[in-house]
Structure formats: structure tokens, C-alpha cells
Amino acid sequence: MPVCPGTAMTHAGPTPPRTGDDVIGWAIRAILGSDSHISPPEGRVTSATVVLRAYVKKTAAEVRDIVAALPASDPRRVAAERSAAEGIHRAVTLGPGNGLRSAFDYARGLAQVAEELRDHKAALRTAPEEDPSC
After folding, report:
1. Which terminus of the chain, N or C, has fewer Cβ atoms within 10 Å?
2. What does each C-alpha distance from 74 to 3, 6, 61, 66, 104 come to in angstroms?
3. pLDDT exceeding 70 applies to what percent of the chain?
4. pTM here?
């Protein structure tokens, strides 16, 4: 079996893209695309965790800034604030623990929050829909 260049492995996995939204998409897919009972290789978990942690910290702060300008009655505000708080907690307070299983579980939590924050950020950029009953 041939060795993949630069890896010394015959089973090298896909490498993360270098820029933009492709990176976070890769990290989310790398973790959430794996079976929950079989973790990906340690290097992929570690790489994805670094990307996810940085994205969650940055995006949670952005979402908090956006929702601060929304009226308290906007239903998007509460959900976005909860996701931002959860993201900050996971990215800043928690850590991967000891061992691959613990690191994978931590990465899954970050990936789920990153996906939620990405969705909230996209929804908050759109104008609220008008109520047809008015």
C-alpha cells in the first residue's frame, strides 16, 4: 500500500481547508459526521477542536453583540443568547479532559454549539419576517 505524501501513513484523512467558512464547515463535519461511538483519529479531533474553539469564542461574541440591539420581544433573541452563553462556557471553561474519548466528546459539544451559532448568526442577519395579521 503506498504511503500518502508528507504523512507517512497509508490511510491519511482529508486535511482541513485553509480559509473562511470552509474551515468551520470542515471541523463540524469532521466531528459530527463521525459515529458517536467511534471517534475519529486523534489528530483530526485535536485539529477540529482548535478550529471549533476559536470559532465559538469569536462567533458567540458577535451573536451577543447582534442580539443586544434586538428588542426583548424578538423570539430569536433568547435562543441566540442561550447558544452564545453555552458556547462561551464550553470554549472558555471546559476542556477536552484526558484521553481520546473525552476529547471527542468535548469536540462534539463544541461542534454542536458552533453549528447552532452559525445558524443563529445567519438568521439574525436577515430582517424579521412581517406578521401577515397586522
Report:
1. C
2. 55, 51, 19, 12, 35
3. 78
4. 0.79
